Amino acid sequence: MDRWDEEDEQRRIRSRPRTIGELFAVDRPLLRPLTDEPFETGADSYRLAQTRA
Predict the structure, then answer these.
(1) CA–CA separation, 38 vs 25, rounded Å?
(2) C-alpha angle 41/43/46, rounded to 5°?
(3) Over the range 28-48, which residues count as b (16 or more CB within 10 Å of their CB) and which as e?
(4) pLDDT tens figures, 24-52
(5) Going by C-beta distance under 8 Å and a sequence separation of 6 or more, which residues neighbour residue 18?
(6) Contact, 24 vs 9, CB < 8 A?
């Protein structure tokens, strides 16, 4: 996983001038630390659809 992260930091999205790592460096100071309490990282959503036969 660490190797993949390091490789991904050098990746560019299409023809954008900055790499993933450079873009993350801009966002990193704005991120808040995670809480010590466990929390759900996603939400399940179900939809029902009716069709006429």
Answers:
(1) 26
(2) 160
(3) eeeeeeeeeeeeeeeeeeeee
(4) 999 999 999 989 999 888 888 888 888 77
(5) 12
(6) yes
Q: What is the DSSP letter of 14?
A: T
Report the largest interatomic distance among the alpha carbons of the chain, rounded to a whole angstrom: 55
pTM of the model: 0.55
Q: Is 2 helix (H, G, I), strand (E, B) or coil?
A: helix
Q: In the numeric block, which tokens belong to residue 10?
A: 């050098």
Residue 53: pLDDT over 80 = no
